[in-house]
Write a structure and sequence with these properties.
This protein is of the alpha/beta class. It has 34 helices and 24 strands. The strands form 7 sheets. It has a 7-stranded parallel β-sheet with strand order 5-8-4-9-10-3-11, with helices on both faces. Helix 12 runs parallel beside helix 13, helix 22 runs parallel beside helix 23 and helix 28 runs antiparallel to helix 29. It is globular, with a radius of gyration of 29 Å. About 45% of the residues are buried.
Length: about 800
Amino acid sequence: MITFYSHDNPRRRLKVHLKDVSSRMIAFIRQAPLNMDKELMSKISRIIGLGHDFGKYTTYFLKHLLKGIESSKANHSFISAVFTYYLVSRSDFIDVDNKYFALLAYNLVLHHHGDLMNLVDDCCFTNNTGLNRKNIFEQQIRNILKNREIIEAEYKENGLEINLKEFAADTGDLWQEIAYLADDYDYLVAEEKDYFFAMMNFLYSALIDADKREAAGGNFVPRRSLPAELVDSYKAVEFADADDNRINRLRNSVYKQVMEKIETVPTDDHIFTFTSPTGSGKTLASFSAALRLRERVNNEKAFLPRIIYSLPFTSIIDQNYEKLVDVLSQLADFKENRGAYIVKHHHLADISYVYRESKKNAEKSKPLDEALQLIESWESEVVVTTFIQLLYSILGYQNSFLKKYHNIAGSIILLDEVQNIPVEYWELVNKALKLLVKYFNCYVILLTATKPLIFVDDEAVQLLDNHQQYFKNLNRTKIIVDLDEKSLDQLVEDFIERFTEDKSYLIVVNTVLSSLKIYNKINKKLKEKNLLSFNPANDLYYLSANIYPKERRQRVEKIRNRVKAKDNKPGDKVIVVATQVVEAGVDIDMDAIYRDLGPVDSIIQVAGRGNREWSDHCSEVYLYNLREEGKTPFARMVYGSIHYKNSKDLLLGKNEVMEAEYYDFVYKFFQGVNEGFEDVDDSKSLIEAAQDLNYSSKENTSFITLADFELIKDNHSYVDVFIGVEEGEKVWDQFINTVYRKKVDSIDDYKEKREAFLQIKNRFRSYIISIPLKIARPYINEKDYYNGVFKPNCSLEHYYNTKTGFKRDIDYGEDYNSREL
């Protein structure tokens, strides 16, 4: 008698695994607030769960699992997909109106161990891939029939009657059925395709998460309650002694009005915008609004939303996350259940999930594998994450992103600094968020100081009704406009002429190369002045992606602490030369700012780093139009002609723009940009790709797939370089010895190697920067290439400057840009 297993170490009976995955999928569906036929989805999910590993009922797979014998006939996904299609298509609940569910079941089972591909490719059996799959399938089905009675009995134990002889006899027709059904799918109308796209993503997510959790023995984390007044109680203690000044009165007014609105707005409204000036307390106000909305939805709609707080940059996530942790720390059991309440998820975040499973057990951090699984599945009440994680999870194709899709259902999504989403994707993001609302009862709140036109006014409810008035009453900063083209030397000369030791300055330019040149020129000029209270060695800071992430975060914190000191004296002042890494969300407060021309919203975001506490003086933001002789202006090189032209046209003839005018200026800018992109918008093609279930392709295709959605454009002329500073060297040695050189002879070896990398993953990536290959080439060669990362083959001082980062002695011209997103 053969015993079939799904996994080894720990050894797991296949019939038990199939039943448990099926049960978990049904549980996901029952918990989610779906605007779909949940009974039908549950029936389909039951079959998908029971069929997804059917191909493991071969002795080929069993020998591979228990003895490590490699064979293409041990691959189980294709035969499992065909078997699942067969079961769904022959079910009594499937008719002509819902026949495409069988197609979805086939496709998601086919790729449950990988990434989703194109429907049209997966359903073709006449190409090389299809013919090879059919050949292996025929050998596998003959093998399975030898143990037919055992397999049929195990399926009967799981409540499903199957006849493997009939299945084998039908396979000649199945290829044609699947191919024809895929062709028919193409003729569905857009709204029907939207439905199947949403359904596909949800079921795929439910399957892969259930499969991974069951294999690892992971349990569900019970949901937690969050008091709606949690931020109120935090503010009452934290800001009890706050000064009664203009900025605090503004923040309190904004907070009060947003809370009143969120308590009265109908819960049938799902899309909101929260537009208010920089420094007006959007983080706490939006989180409090989400808590109150969550409580109302729970009471009125009978489901409990998670809160997903999404930001554009990893550089600003930490400060927002820590603020939310401070608020949640008021909860009595927060320390022992931190992971159940809040997780931070991005590629540099720590892998830690603290959770107390029962009152008898002390709190402890989950093992790394399980912690990563819970974090990646967003198994928490509050998730703080990046646009990359969120948008690639609802518009992506990769297994690792899509596994959390089912947990997004019914959530309250806060999108902070949404103007950083490229304008060419506004229509796509609009569509994706509306699908979450329509089918999964999600709520969306867009947070911004510069309102982009992702949603038009009648599509969203504004939480701060009189927000324009808040902008018009401000006079913290003013932009001093000079559109004449000037050199970097001219900016430096102007800066030195205006410089005084009693002010802090921020200089933001568009490329790493121009920022390095300005930093070095200013450093030299200031040393020549021999100032009394300003020491360039300690008081001049440089920030860009040329600095490795760990140092960049520490540098921002040092700057923040210095400029926010209440007893700020001339000796405490700083100068910061930076690229766009400080553009949004970085909480620093400068006296004067210099900015190279860019999109109007970007200029105003940088202006928001000035006079945040609204002192009596009006801080100047000096706007330049920089270029190197004989070359394209930096702004046009980085942002393109449409943004460059719209900014120039709006500012033409202006000497000054006061803060009270910012709101109208940004609105006009976004209108112009939106119209300018009308003919080159990528959104429509990507929407069609989603509707056609064209996720990705291994072949070069002439059509767009979701794999072409790039929030940050991938520049293949860049390489990842590991910076071997003192602490980094220890991390590198640990990586080489425990991960890279670790021999893999078994699954146990692989797991040990993976866990070793997870232990150092966030520290490892904290020392990596992306560098143009032209710049890095003198310091690296092929033998220095380790798992996608180069380590320079020389000592640190040869390639890295501790003040300004990677040494860029080559002028690489304008064929590279460096807009740092």
